Structure formats: C-alpha cells, structure tokens
Automatic annotation (TrEMBL):
ABC transmembrane type-1 domain location: 60-265
CDD domains from the UniProt entry: TM_PBP2
Major location category of this protein: membrane
Similarity remark: Belongs to the binding-protein-dependent transport system permease family. CysTW subfamily.
GO cellular component: plasma membrane
Record's protein name: ABC transmembrane type-1 domain-containing protein
SUPFAM superfamilies, per the entry: MetI-like
Bilayer topology annotation: Multi-pass membrane protein
Listed transmembrane segments: 7-27, 64-86, 98-124, 144-163, 198-220, 240-264
Entry-linked InterPro entries: MetI-like, MetI-like_sf
Length: 277
C-alpha cells in the first residue's frame, strides 16, 4: 500500500505532538530557565556548578565511554551471532527468542544474576577463591558496569543485525570463493563494507540504549554508579538536598549527547548507502 505524502504527515501528527509535548517542550522550557538563571546569577547557576566541579563532567565521560565501548563489543558479538544464525536456520528461532529475552533482561534481574555469579559470595567468585585464583571481576567498578551493559547490548545487536545479514546476496560469497577468496577475505572486502551502513545505525541505537540505562547501574551500585542517568536521579530525589536546576542541565546534556550520536549515525549510514548505490 502506497501512502501520499499528505496522508503520511497526518498519520505522523499524533506522534509528533506527543514528542513535542512530552519531550521538546519541557526541554526547551528548562533550557530557557537555566539560561535566564545564569544571566541573572552568574557563576552561581547550574552551568557554573557543572563546569566548576569535575564530578559531573566525569559522570558524563563515564557515560560516553561505557556506552561507546559496550556498543562496539555488542556489535562484534551480535554480528558473529547473526552470521551463525543465518547459516544455521534450525537454530534461528530458539536463539532469536533467547536474544529477545536477553535484550530485555536488564535492570534488577540482570543485576541479581550478576551478583549471584560474580558478587562477593557469587558462584564463580567462590569457585575461583577455592582454586586459589584472584577474582578478576569487580561489579562495583567500571569493569562490572561494562560487563552488565554488554549482557543486554549483545542480544539487542543480534536482533538488529539478523535482517541485514539475511539481505546479503549469498551469490557474492560463492563468487568470492570461486575466485579463491576465503571467508575472512570475503567479509573484510565484501561483507563488512556492505553491512557498514546497518552497523553504523545499530551503533547509534546501542549507544542510546546504554547511555539512557538507569535501572542496571543503579541496581548494581546504587547512587555510587557514576553515570549521568544515576546522577540525574540522585539530584532529583536529593540524597542530601535536591538540585532540580542541575539535574535538568544534566538531562539536557544527556539529551544532546544522544541526539548528536544518533543524528551522526543516521547521516553516516545514509552517506554510506549512497556510496554503495
């Protein structure tokens, strides 16, 4: 069924209104309020609090590198899993079902599972200590957060990449094999370049999925988890005292980070597809 441009715009209008009322209007209002506050108060405003103290900038940096690294690791695992599933159709349905569960297995359930495995009294930790080995995973540190993020990023990446892998022309691999190219050379010279637009778009979605995650880091480390989502919640609830202006500024920072990464990923994917056309 083909829709006219006018009909498509009318169908998209409810979503556009919802986005404007629930997202753009509050952000615009808070941004204007912060700017007015800084114009009248000078360094005593939220922007001054953010720039004068490296504590919140460190949380932004942690969010940036954790989201980027977990997205890249998730893409690597997900691409390998997607290729294996396409080559083994019998496993596709059960593994896709498990990947769907894994992609949604975040927050408190994931934190409890990791604590049962790698916590101070976790199964793997106790087994390593019994063997005289030093446990190498610290769930209270950044490495523990990275492990938790990868646990829900990799299944989501698998789901996102199954369809693009299936769309690859298998005749290209047969032609490459006829010319003497092995699987590694085929994927390096043919498969990955063709998959690159989909990988770039999937990276943007995975980055946003990790950067906006709150339940998983909070369930693992509470307010000690030094990422933007947890810092925003702590400032709103007020562990010591509430700072709504600073929390709004951090939310704007997170929003800008997500908008830039997703926008660049979409633009990059579009340019790559145009180059392949």
């Amino acid at each position: 069924m083909t829709l006219s441009a006018r009909t498509a715009w009318w169908l998209a209008l409810p979503l556009a209104l919802l986005m404007g009322i629930a997202l753009l209007l509050p952000f615009g209002w808070r941004a204007a309020a912060i700017l007015v506050d800084c114009a009248t108060q000078g360094d005593g405003c939220a922007i001054g609090d953010l720039t004068s103290d490296g504590y919140y900038l460190e949380a932004a940096w942690n969010t940036l590198w954790l989201s980027t690294l977990s997205a890249l690791i998730g893409l690597a695992i997900g691409l390998g899993a997607a290729i294996a599933l396409v080559r083994s159709p019998r496993l596709a349905h059960p593994v896709t079902l498990l990947a769907s569960l894994g992609a949604n297995f975040s927050g408190v359930p994931l934190a409890v599972a990791l604590l049962l495995l790698f916590g101070a009294q976790g199964v793997i930790t106790v087994a390593m200590q019994a063997l005289g080995w030093t446990p190498w995973i610290d769930l209270q540190g950044q490495g523990g957060l990275l492990l938790a993020y990868v646990c829900f990023q990799a299944p989501l990446a698998t789901l996102l990449l199954i369809a693009p892998v299936r769309l690859l022309d298998h005749g290209l691999q047969d032609a490459a094999a006829t010319l003497g190219a092995g699987p590694v050379l085929y994927w390096r010279r043919v498969g990955l370049p063709l998959m690159l637009p989909s990988l770039v778009e999937a990276f943007g979605l995975l980055f946003a999925n990790a950067a906006a995650a709150f339940a998983t880091p909070f369930a693992l480390n509470g307010t000690a988890a030094h990422v933007l989502a947890v810092r925003i919640a702590a400032l709103v609830s007020g562990d010591i005292f509430a700072q709504p202006e600073l929390s709004a500024l951090l939310a704007l920072l997170l929003f800008a980070m997500l908008a830039i990464v997703i926008g660049l990923s979409r633009l990059g994917a579009a340019r790559l597809r145009k180059g392949l056309a």
